[in-house]
């Protein structure tokens, strides 16, 4: 890419063995990966950096997995505007990237007169944001839609455009498509220093880039402080939410996403189907340290108590997993998406709920911001004429007809080898997930992509088999296969036994 003001080609080799990038994105969550995919529509040399050993290892992997309709965030806030737009974009995005997405609708439940005032406020806010189909309903209609809801709830706000998805799969799909279109991904890469040198930034004294996009989630304040030590614009605190995940046999307890009325701490506890037929319950909201993703008896008891106010019969005996996630709470109470005082350094920070819902619109917003910066700097940027928005669909062997299954088995006998009995996942599906761009390198990385270990036994049966497949396909020793983050080795040492 030629800089017209200087005549220099900035994305040529800057030093021996080094490449000059046009854009470096720090953070490979759903926001960072969707931004990378959006920018890949232009002839830009882009790299994504993340300190973890996989994408989607932060807030993206542990949240409610909902695409909010968009009535909650104030209509005059960036959150409100981007949620409304992001929700709309998910239909086309899910088709292009082949991830699960279904609009099942949401209900915010109201108990008394004060709750009804809250529902009216949400409705009026949603109307200002042009949220389609919003409706205030009475007890009779609510009972028809959700017979199991506690009789004390006399009103509800219905939003038909609310949906469910897999947030980690959105990020994986976006990153895979971005890489198919030329974006580079560097994992296990912690950013510890950023230096500015005229027209470029130098990350960790080795990666040079014209522009930095800070999408580092809960650590976005730290990343910004590396270039602006006295900054007070990006101030983030951590709020933890804890969850229950129920077995698929509990799937009939609700059909829609159920919310309690929102409070200052968040949108309230939810009970909702998931994209794969489970039931998710949570979260609560607790201020914690940034790396504290533990679950606690107190927190889970709080979640269960709120859920039982919505429907009295919560089959907690069908719980198969508990987890918690961290969201970044900004001091501004709104998304921070802007070029910082350090020119060509863009902060995308404080992306709390509805961050997942807003992510596609955030990607478009940041892309427009980058193009404005290029125009200001008199840099030329062309459309990528060979950009493809389509991602090859994954195989879902269990959902196919018997004829199609037999056809696949003839093509690849590994489809006949079922590794995960709970989710009916074949060896061929796992191998495919490993060898794609942005492929799985860990046990949980495989789980996020094709779901072995996500069922009732939580990997008790298939876990050792997945270790064997990863070891074979990545050509590494079984003791080097990680469960999740760096150093999480399920097998510490191989033992060999002599025959008696």
- Main sheet makeup: 9 strands, mixed
Number of strands: 25
Count of DSSP H/I helices? 12
User: Percentage of helical residues?
Assistant: 25-40%
Shape: globular
Low-confidence stretches: 1-17
Rg result: 23 Å
The percent range for strand residues is 15-25%
Between the first and last Cα atoms, what is the distance in angstroms?
69 Å
Which whole number gives the mean pLDDT?
93
Structural class: alpha+beta
Task: Give a written overview of the molecule.
This protein is of the alpha+beta class. It has twelve helices and 25 strands. Strands 3, 4, 5, 12, 13, 14, 15, 22 and 23 form a nine-stranded mixed sheet that branches. Strands 8, 9, 10, 16, 17, 18, 19, 20 and 21 form a nine-stranded mixed sheet that branches. A hairpin with a 4-residue loop joins strand 1 and strand 2. Helix 1 packs parallel to helix 5 and helix 1 packs across helix 8. The protein is globular, with a radius of gyration of 23 Å.
Give a quick summary of the entry.
It contains twelve helices and 25 strands.
What structural keywords apply?
nine-stranded mixed beta sheet; 500 residues; 25 strands; alpha+beta; single chain; disordered N terminus
List the helices and strands and how they pair.
Elements: E1 2-3, E2 8-9, E3 13-15, E4 18-26, H1 30-39, E5 46-49, E6 66-67, H2 78-97, E7 101-103, E8 106-110, H3 113-128, E9 135-138, H4 139-145, E10 155-159, E11 163-165, H5 167-180, E12 184-186, E13 194-197, E14 200-203, E15 207-214, H6 220-227, E16 236-246, E17 257-259, E18 270-273, E19 279-282, E20 286-288, H7 297-310, E21 319-330, E22 336-339, E23 345-349, H8 355-376, H9 402-411, E24 418-420, E25 425-426, H10 427-435, H11 443-450, H12 463-474
Parallel strand pairs: 4-5, 4-15, 5-12, 8-17, 15-23
Antiparallel strand pairs: 1-2, 3-4, 6-11, 7-11, 8-10, 9-10, 13-14, 14-15, 16-19, 16-20, 16-21, 17-18, 18-19, 22-23, 24-25
Helix pairs in contact: 1-5, 1-8, 2-8, 10-12
């Amino acid at each position: 890419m030629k800089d017209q003001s200087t005549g220099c080609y900035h994305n040529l080799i800057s030093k021996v063995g080094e490449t000059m990038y046009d854009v470096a994105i720090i953070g490979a969550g759903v926001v960072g990966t969707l931004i990378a995919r959006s920018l890949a529509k232009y002839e830009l040399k882009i790299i994504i950096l993340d300190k973890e050993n996989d994408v989607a290892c932060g807030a993206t992997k542990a949240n409610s997995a909902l695409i909010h309709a968009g009535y909650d965030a104030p209509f005059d806030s960036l959150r409100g505007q981007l949620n409304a737009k992001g929700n709309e974009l998910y239909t086309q995005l899910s088709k292009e990237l082949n991830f699960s997405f279904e609009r099942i609708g949401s209900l915010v439940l109201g108990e008394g007169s004060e709750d009804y005032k809250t529902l009216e406020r949400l409705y009026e806010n949603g109307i200002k944001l042009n949220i389609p189909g919003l409706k205030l309903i009475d007890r009779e209609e609510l009972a028809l839609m959700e017979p199991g809801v506690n009789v004390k709830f006399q009103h509800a706000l219905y939003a038909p455009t609310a949906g469910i998805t897999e947030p980690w799969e959105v990020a994986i799909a976006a990153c895979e498509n971005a890489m198919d279109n030329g974006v580079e991904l560097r994992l296990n890469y912690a950013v510890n220093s950023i230096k500015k040198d005229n027209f470029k930034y130098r990350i960790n004294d080795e990666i040079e880039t014209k522009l930095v996009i800070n999408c580092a989630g809960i650590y976005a304040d730290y990343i910004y402080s590396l270039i602006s030590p006295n900054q007070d614009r990006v101030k983030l605190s951590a709020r933890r939410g804890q969850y229950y995940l129920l077995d698929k046999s509990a799937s009939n307890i609700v059909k829609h996403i159920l919310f309690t009325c929102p409070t200052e701490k968040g949108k309230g506890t939810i009970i909702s189907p998931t994209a794969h037929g489970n039931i998710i319950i949570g979260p609560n909201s607790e201020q914690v340290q940034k790396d504290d993703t533990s679950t606690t008896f107190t927190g889970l008891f709080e979640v269960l108590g709120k859920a039982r106010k919505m429907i009295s019969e919560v089959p907690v005996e069908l719980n198969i997993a508990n987890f918690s996630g961290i969201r970044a709470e900004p001091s501004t109470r709104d998304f921070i998406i802007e070029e910082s005082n350090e020119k060509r350094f863009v902060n995308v920070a404080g992306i709390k709920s509805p961050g997942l819902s807003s992510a596609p619109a955030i990607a478009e917003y940041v892309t427009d911001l980058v193009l404005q910066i290029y125009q200001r700097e008199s840099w030329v940027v062309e459309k990528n004429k060979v950009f493809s928005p389509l991602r090859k669909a994954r195989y879902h062997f269990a959902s196919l007809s018997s004829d199609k299954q037999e056809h696949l088995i003839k093509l690849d006998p590994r489809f006949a080898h079922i590794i995960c009995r709970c989710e009916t996942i074949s060896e061929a599906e796992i191998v495919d997930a490993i060898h794609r761009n942005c492929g799985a390198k860990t046990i949980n990385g495989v789980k996020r992509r094709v779901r072995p270990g996500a069922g009732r036994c939580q990997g008790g049966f298939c876990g050792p088999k997945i270790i064997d497949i990863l070891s074979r396909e990545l050509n590494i020793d079984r003791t080097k296969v990680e469960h999740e983050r760096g150093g999480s080795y399920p097998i510490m040492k191989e033992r060999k036994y002599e025959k008696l």
